[in-house]
Design brief:
about 130 residues; 2,3-Dihydroxybiphenyl 1,2-Dioxygenase, domain 1; VOC_core; Glyoxalase/bleomycin resistance protein/dioxygenase; 10 strands; oxidoreductase; two-stranded antiparallel ribbon; alpha+beta; Glyas_Bleomycin-R_OHBP_Dase; eight-stranded mixed beta sheet; dioxygenase activity
Length: about 130
């Protein structure tokens, strides 16, 4: 069960402005590599800007305070944003969280086509995503 930093997600009301800011000021590139296909009919229908530094993506997602209610999940990763790691074995990671006593929300593929996602809180209330592709 290997984890690798995949993206940081910032929630915003200004997707286009924020995307342009990060492209212009931090010289990040728009990316078409490994871009998730959003499942806009399953719970999150917002817009997302995608930029990256060549290794790690920055997702600039339209804030949606109701996404948790729409998907029936306790953890809503679209209120404040989150940090995301990719794993090669989500089942093993879920078992690890359960052994550690860490509750999580299993979004399955409610937001992104082909990604199975879980979300949980760190001790300070920051949201962490772990997902597996395929």
């Amino acid at each position: 069960m290997k984890l690798k930093l995949h993206h940081v997600n910032l929630s915003t009301e200004k997707v286009e402005e924020m995307t342009e800011f990060y492209r212009r000021v931090l010289c990040l590139d728009e990316t078409e590599e490994d871009i998730p296909v959003l499942e806009k009919t399953k719970g999150y229908s917002g817009d997302v800007g995608f930029v990256w530094d060549g290794a790690v993506q920055l997702h600039l997602a339209q804030k949606d305070v109701l996404a948790g209610f729409k998907t029936g999940q306790i953890v809503n990763p679209l209120v404040k944003g989150h940090i995301a790691y990719r794993t090669d074995d989500l089942a093993a990671f879920k078992a690890h969280l359960e052994a550690e006593g860490i509750p999580y929300s299993d979004w399955e593929n409610a937001a992104v086509q082909g990604w199975r996602q879980i979300f949980f809180y760190d001790p300070d209330g920051n949201i962490v995503e772990v997902h597996e592709v395929g």
